[in-house]
Design a protein that fits this description.
The protein is of the alpha/beta class. It folds into two domains: 149 residues, 3-Layer(aba) Sandwich (Rossmann fold), CATH 3.40.50; 82 residues, 2-Layer Sandwich (SIR2/SIRT2 'Small Domain'), CATH 3.30.1600. The protein has nine helices and eleven strands. Strand 6 and strand 7 form a beta hairpin. The longest helix has 18 residues. The relative contact order is 0.19.
Length: 241
C-alpha cells in the first residue's frame, strides 16, 4: 500500500457482523430467523399485521443489541481516529456494532434495530425496549403509529443524497462483507469507479460484481481488514503525514 487517500468510502454488509455472531439478513434457505422475509420486511406485511411485525423486531433486539464488535469493526474505528483523510462508513446492517466500536460518520441506509418512526409526525424514537401498538409517541402523543425504523423491501434506503455525494468524492471505495446483489448498494462500486476511485473488496468468496474491483481480498474480514488498515496507517506514517 503506497498511496495516500483523501476520502475513503467504506460499505459494510452482513459479513462483517456475522463474525460477531449475528446471522445474515437472508440465509440460504430464504428465511430470516425462521420467518419468510415477505412476512416481516414489507410494507404490505406491516399494514396487514403490525403487531406481528413489531413482535418479530422486538424479539430480534436483545440478540442484536447484545452483540459485541469484532476486530473488523474495531479497526475501522481506529482508521477513522488515526487516518488524516476523511473516512465514511455506509452500512447495510441494522445493528449498532460500528457505534459500539466508537466509529463516527456512520450512515445506516437500511435503518437501525433500536429505532422506530412515528407515521403520524415522523419522530424517530430510539429505544432498546419493545415498541408495539401500545407505544405512545413522545412528540405528538399519538398511540400505535410507530413503525420499526427498518427499510422494508420496496422502500427507498436512507441517506441516499449524502451517500451519492460521498461516492462521487471518494478516491478509495472499500466493500466489506456484502454480497453485491442487493441494490442500490450493489451499484455503489459502479459510481465510485466511474468517478475515479480505487476499489477493493473484502469477502469470504468472490462476488458477482468482482470484476469492478481493482483488488479482491478473500478471507475472514476480522483478519484481513485489520491488516489492510495497518497498511494504510503505515503508508501515512511513511509519507510523513
Amino acid at each position: 500500500m503506497k498511496k495516500q487517500y483523501k476520502r475513503i468510502f467504506i460499505l459494510t454488509g452482513a459479513g462483517i457482523s456475522a463474525e460477531s455472531g449475528l446471522s445474515t439478513f437472508r440465509d440460504s434457505d430464504g428465511l430470516w430467523n425462521n420467518h419468510k422475509v415477505e412476512d416481516v420486511a414489507t410494507l404490505e406485511a406491516f399494514e396487514k399485521n403490525p403487531a406481528f411485525v413489531h413482535k418479530f423486531y422486538n424479539e430480534l433486539k436483545p440478540e442484536i443489541l447484545n452483540a459485541k464488535p469484532n476486530p473488523a469493526h474495531l479497526c475501522l474505528a481506529k482508521l477513522q481516529e488515526k487516518y488524516k483523510g476523511k473516512v465514511n462508513i455506509i452500512t447495510q446492517n441494522v445493528d449498532i456494532l460500528h457505534e459500539k466500536a466508537s466509529s463516527k460518520n456512520i450512515y445506516h441506509i437500511h435503518g437501525k434495530i433500536d429505532e422506530a418512526m412515528c407515521l403520524e409526525c415522523g419522530h424517530i424514537l430510539q429505544s432498546a425496549e419493545d415498541v408495539d401498538m401500545s407505544t405512545i409517541c413522545p412528540h405528538c402523543a399519538t398511540k400505535g403509529k410507530f413503525k420499526p425504523n427498518i427499510v422494508f423491501f420496496g422502500e427507498m434506503p436512507l441517506y441516499m443524497p449524502e451517500v451519492e455525494k460521498h461516492l462521487r468524492e471518494c478516491d478509495l471505495f472499500v466493500s466489506v462483507g456484502t454480497s453485491g446483489v442487493v441494490y442500490p448498494a450493489a451499484g455503489f462500486v459502479y459510481t465510485a469507479k466511474y468517478y475515479g476511485a480505487d476499489t477493493i473488496e473484502f469477502n469470504l468468496t468472490t462476488t458477482s460484481n468482482n470484476y469492478l474491483f481493482d483488488e479482491h481480498i478473500e478471507g475472514k474480514c476480522s483478519i484481513t481488514l485489520p491488516e489492510f488498515v495497518e497498511q494504510l496507517l503505515e503508508t501515512q506514517e511513511n509519507n510523513g503525514e
